[in-house]
Every structure is written in C-alpha cells, then in structure tokens.
Specification:
three-stranded antiparallel beta sheet; transmembrane helix; 302 residues; alpha+beta; PqiA-like; Membrane protein, putative
Length: 302
C-alpha cells in the first residue's frame, strides 16, 4: 500500500474511532446525568429536613411509608441508570482497545509505525480527557442509618413520678449531605466558594496542561521544525511528569469533603465515578504516548 493510501486509511480509522467514541460518550453522559438527577432526588426525599423536622412523621408511623416507597422507586431508577452508563463506559474502553489492535495489525510493518501508534494514543487520550473532565467524577454522601432521637422524661403526678419515653427512631437512611460532581463542576464550585488556589490547581492540571501536552505532542509528530527544537521535546517530557498531579489534588479534595461532613453518628461515603476513571485513562495513554513519540523521533523521524 502506498504512503498516501496508508495515511488515508489511518485517518479513516482514527475518524471512525472518534465517531464511535463520541456516540458512546454521548449515551454514557446521558445516563450519568440521569443517575445524578435520580440520586439527588432520592437523597432529597430522605433529607433530614423532610424527616427530622416533619411533625407528622414524629406523630404517625404511617407517614413514612409513602416516602419509603417513593425513595425505593427513585433509587431503583438511579441504579438502572448507573448500570446503563457503566455499560457504555465499558463499550468505550473496548473501542479504544480495538482501535489499538487494528493499528498494530495493519501498521506494525509500516516504516512510520511508532508515529501511527503515537497518534493513536494521542487520539484516545484526547477522548478520555474530554469525558474525564465533563463526566461525574465523585459522589459524597453523609447519612444516618436508623437514627434514634432519645426523648425520655419524668411527669410529676403529685404522689408519684411517671417515666415517659417519647423516643423516636427514623427507619432507614436520613441524608444530611449529598454531592455528585464532575471536574468542571468541581472547579466552578471551588471558584464560587473562593477557593481559588485549589480551583486554579485543578483547572491547570486537569484542563490546561493536558491540552497543551496533547497539542505539542501532535506538533512533534507532524512538524520537522518543531521536532528539531530541543525545548519543545523537553517541554513535552516535563509535562508528562505532571500528568498524575490532578489525581493527587482531587484525592486530597475528596478526603477533605469526606472528613468535613463526618460527625458523631453520621456515616460518610465517597465513591469514584466514571470521570475519575476516564481521567486516569487519559493519564495512562498520555504517558504512554510520550514513550512512543520518543521512539518515533529516534527511529523514524530523525
């Protein structure tokens, strides 16, 4: 196969992957947003203001039954949306693996094999980055399970005192806090709360530095002038060392929120969602692309 035909075939293959990846991301994001809405509605139904401050539920046990049924139905819908989003995420991962296999099979004997493989990893990294910053990254919830409010007193009847127990147990979960955020939403929240240092760090490490790295990586592979510029190669290599910094910053923020809402008698759960895994995948593919770019420059593009 001639060089122009080979290039056109690779471009068509990359375009087909991008189109399929966009479709899987679109459906995954739709179900992820639906999960976010249903999970938020579920926690609002079981919010402490709706239960603890509801006088009717204090007086009548039957008041809880309609809420319990509504919450169970909403939670079931949320779980179904979670599984659907997870399936589309798995399909997106499978497409990336298939793309890499096809490139290796068709181009392993090509004189510019490492260049093609580098572009492959860059394209996949770009797709993972876009999904990683816009898909929900983490959810944090603070709740009490079967909360009991002790209300015991004595009533003086003149000749004797009678113990009166008005304690109330709220069956099931009672939510005090719930958040489900993507990296973009997390950055907005931090800036709204005037946490400019942490927000700026996540913005830089999550969005700006990854985009600059991918841009310069493409320039290294496609431009001879850029390739022979030493500082550009050093810049791409240096940026690669910071690729995992955002995961570290996000982990600190996750731990901060978890401990912030941890009080006596309150359970706190923190769960990583699709955005965190896609951003981690971006880091892996980005770091791997740096190796293949160096091999392409040494062996093919000298």
């Amino acid at each position: 196969m001639s060089q122009p035909k080979t290039n056109r075939f690779f471009i068509a293959l990359a375009f087909a992957y991008l189109l399929a990846s966009l479709c899987t991301t679109y459906f995954m994001m739709g179900f992820a947003q639906s999960y976010q809405q249903h999970k938020t509605s579920y926690t609002e139904t079981l919010n402490f203001q709706e239960r603890l401050l509801n006088a009717r539920e204090w007086m009548f046990a039957s008041e809880w039954e309609p809420k319990k049924a509504q919450a169970a139905a909403t939670f079931k819908e949320a779980q179904a949306d979670f599984l659907r989003a997870q399936r589309w995420a798995y399909l997106g991962a499978a497409l990336a693996v298939i793309f890499i296999i096809l490139v290796v099979v068709f181009f392993q004997r090509h004189p510019l094999f490492y260049q093609k493989l580098s572009f492959t990893f860059i394209v996949i990294a770009l797709g993972c980055l876009g999904t990683g910053i816009f898909a929900p990254m983490l959810e944090i919830e603070a709740f009490s399970q079967d909360l009991t409010i002790p209300l015991k007193t004595h009533v003086n009847l003149g000749i004797t005192k009678v113990k009166v127990d008005l304690s109330k147990t709220f069956d099931g979960r009672m939510y005090f806090y719930y958040q489900n955020k993507s990296i973009v939403e997390l950055i907005k929240l931090l800036f709204q709360k005037k946490s400019f240092l942490v927000g700026g760090a996540i913005l830089g490490f999550s969005v700006l530095i990854p985009l600059f790295k991918l841009l310069f990586s493409v320039l290294l592979l496609s431009s001879g002038w850029v390739r022979h510029t030493t500082w550009v190669q050093q810049l791409v290599s240096g940026i690669g060392k910071w690729s995992m910094a955002d995961v570290f910053v996000a982990a600190i923020f996750l731990a901060y929120l978890s401990f912030q809402h941890m009080n006596a008698g309150i359970d706190t759960e923190s769960n990583l969602l699709w955005g965190a895994y896609f951003f981690l995948a971006y880091c892996v593919f980005s770091i791997s692309s740096t190796y293949f770019i160096s091999q392409a420059i040494k062996k093919e593009l000298f």
